[in-house]
Design goal:
heterodimer; A: six-stranded antiparallel sheet; 11 strands; about 30% helix; B: about 70% helix; binds zinc ion
């Protein structure tokens, strides 16, 4: 399964995740994809190494520690017994990878969906307000309304697949669409499609009715 | 200090981590602290923390290094990289007040010791990466530093430097390509 992923996280997003500058909603999507994709995991490690190299370098950003700082820290070390190994229990290959299950539980069937029309359902994840993460449930063969973006939209497929102008996206694949891309994703005919969609600005649907609609469904 | 001495000093940190992990060696920890704590504090100040918050967080980061020493794997990261990830997570928690979802851990064999050859290779690669970054043209290096330490997104960098976003992206890509090239 892992080798089937064809659409990956962009370098810009991986770098932002490594630097710790992305909104929480994007962090969820990146961490979920990496849980499924060893390519991006390796790429992330190389971005982390850049951060490490810059931290370790002799640079002009060295700060002076407060007086007594080391003594204070040494005192706190008493409280830490030698490492008991605390490895996270592996949940590999679960439908819902761990970084996402912290928000929605272990099972997609437990998600509390809300209908947003045309058979499409959504569930908004509780995250910081600078970006929005939502699960979308799109019935097999159904098209999402044609929409553009004010900002960046990333979509990660968890179940089923969808097709749009940019290609075919199946489980683990990520589509990244920047502002001014208009697209109409259509769920694959064989299975309902569930994806995690993250936006840092509201989507722009075409047409007045949809604009009004948009205010009610928080897309 | 000569380059060679520096290199030797850096690879020593792995040895420090081993001593901290296996024998809870406080002298080794104090030396590690002397090198990394001022760097972590500087990193947090650059990311927007005031001096007292940065001091507090840098202390916590170093306590975490002690407490989680058993999780450091020298075949997967340099000591500097490992401490960077701890400091980065602390930054998100303390400065941005957000959760940081982490990828699932890869499952390894039961308590497998990393092969010594892997450790040496990884640490050598970290060395050449550090050298390559030091040799970047000043402007490219400054942008990389802003992207990592300045808590700026690429578009915010554009706003601050007045450069178009596309230029920033390609500059950062260029810096990364040079690094990749230097690593080959
Ligand atoms: Zn990937």
């Amino acid at each position: 399964m892992k080798n089937d992923i064809k659409h990956h996280i962009t370098d810009q997003m991986l770098m932002g995740y490594s630097a710790g500058t992305l909104p929480e909603a994007f962090n969820i999507l990146v961490a979920t994809h990496i849980s499924l994709c060893d390519d991006c995991r390796a790429q992330l490690a190389s971005y982390d190494s850049i951060g490490g190299a810059m931290l370790g370098a002799d640079n002009d950003a060295l700060a002076t520690m407060d007086t007594g700082s080391l003594a204070a820290v040494m005192e706190r070390l008493e409280d830490c017994p030698a490492g008991a190994t605390e490895r996270a229990p592996s949940a590999r290959n679960n439908t819902v990878p761990a970084p996402l299950s912290d928000y929605i539980g272990n099972d997609l069937s437990g998600v509390k969906w809300r209908n947003i029309g045309m058979g499409v359902r959504q569930a908004i994840l509780p995250t910081s307000a600078d970006a929005t993460a939502r699960l979308l449930h799109i019935p097999a063969g159904v098209a999402m309304p044609d929409h553009g973006h004010n900002g960046t939209e990333m979509t990660l497929v968890l179940q089923g697949a969808f097709q749009d102008d940019d290609g075919y996206f199946a489980r683990g694949d990520v589509e990244t669409a920047d502002a001014d891309v208009n697209h109409t994703p259509v769920a694959d005919i064989h299975e309902d499609c569930i994806c995690l969609a993250v936006t840092d600005a509201p989507l722009r649907f075409k047409g007045l009715f949809l604009k009004i609609f948009q205010r009610f469904i928080r897309i | 200090m000569s380059t060679r001495e520096k290199a030797e000093k850096r690879s020593l940190w792995v040895d420090h981590m081993v001593r901290i992990h296996t024998s809870r060696d406080r002298a080794a920890f104090a030396e590690l602290y002397g090198h990394f704590a001022p760097r972590v504090k500087g990193f947090l100040i650059k990311s927007g923390a005031d001096a007292s918050l940065a001091e507090e967080c840098a202390q916590e980061v170093m306590v975490t290094v002690w407490a989680k020493a058993h999780l450091f794997d020298a075949s997967r990261a340099s000591v500097a990289t490992w401490i960077f990830t701890i400091a980065r997570n602390r930054k998100i928690d303390a400065l941005r007040k957000q959760r940081r979802p982490e990828p699932e851990e890869l499952t390894w064999g039961p308590e497998e010791e990393p092969a010594q050859a892997d450790v040496i290779a990884l640490q050598q690669e970290s060395e050449s990466l550090a050298r390559a970054i030091a040799e970047l043209p000043a402007r490219q290096r400054a942008l990389l530093e802003k992207a990592y330490f300045g808590d700026l997104t690429h578009s915010e960098i554009a706003a601050q430097t007045g450069l178009p976003l596309g230029t920033i992206k390609s500059r950062i890509r260029l810096a990364l390509d040079r690094l990749r090239h230097a690593m080959k």
